[in-house]
Amino acid sequence: MHPAKFVVALVLLPFLSLTAHADFGTALQAYDDGEYQSAYREFRALADDGDADAQSILALMYLEGQAVDADMAQAIGWYARAAEQGQIDAQYALAIISIEGAGGAARNLNTAAQWMHESARRGHMYAQFDLGNMYANGTGVVESDADAAQWFEFAAAQGHKDAQYNLGILYLTGRGVETDRDVAMQWFQRAAEQGHKDAQYNLGVSYLTGRSVERDPLQAVRWLQAAADQGQSSAVVALGLLRLEGDEGITQDQVAAARLFRQAADSGNPQGQYFLAVLFTRGLGVEQDPVEAYAWLEMASGRTRPGSELAASIDGLRQSLTAVMTASEIAQATAVARQRIQAAQAAATN
Predict the structure, then answer these.
(1) Any idea what DSSP says for residue 106?
(2) Per-domain residue ranges of the chain
(3) What is the CATH architecture of 1-142?
(4) Which residues pair with 250 in a beta bridge?
(5) What are the E-state strand segments in 149-195?
(6) What one-character DSSP code corresponds to residue 326?
(7) How many other CB atoms are there within 10 angstroms of residue 85's CB atom?
(8) Burial class (CB in 10 A: 0-12, 13-18, 19+), 103
(9) pLDDT per residue over 118-164, tens digit each?
(10) Is the pTM of this model over 0.90?
């Protein structure tokens, strides 16, 4: 779990709706319309008079170079004036700047923790989520799963889908809270309904296995497909296995299974690569081809943790193939694997 990226510009304006200044409203409308020069003049006058919300937006304008030259020192100065008055977006912005050392600013995790706490305890949803991550990773604070769970719960209650997912993981694993699969599933459900692809995957697997929910293969397909549509490769593998083996209400289709495994394999998923190798070994849904099978095993091996169950399966199948392949075929397969790995690395850098 990692702290969020610099998202001050994305989360600033929604918190300003309670401001009653007529001048502020005019300035905000100008800002929304992209009339930054007019907005700057209005916000600067209000900021000079001590309006914390105006100070926070003025800081953002210096940060983004809107109507003025980008100036991190000015941005930090105005954020600090607003933060000292309790303006939660400014406090959050200072925390993020201090975590990342953005724009040449000094990186200071103690300062980040201070401002993140101030913003989070006043109810800033993103600060609550990021503070949970800070406690989970020991970033600027003493690592504490219990504190991470507390701040994730605050953010999750406000609808933050990543916090809901993280909280589900903590309840599933018993980190910082007592293990409770039912509660974990509730948080996964809420995150999944908001489109969190990993929560959708976990929910789909739960419906497939019948753990903590009544087994329902069709519901499993629903959530796995939702996750797969967002590129969650483990969900693609799970759908491939369902197509390979069939299930209640799900027609067995080896060709469709091969297509799904290939999709996952091309994305670099080692399980997809292994199962595609199995199909090429046996000629299921594809034409039997030991060279292709061996090549995909080579690729999977490089992405698999040694000593894992998947590593053992890969080694077992590779030994079986080695017994029936010529040295030339093995060399050809190794070359194919190397070419695919190089092509994937090149694509990733472009």
Answers:
(1) P
(2) 1-142
(3) Alpha Horseshoe (1.25)
(4) 247
(5) none
(6) -
(7) 14
(8) middle
(9) 999 999 999 999 999 999 999 999 999 999 999 999 999 999 999 99
(10) no
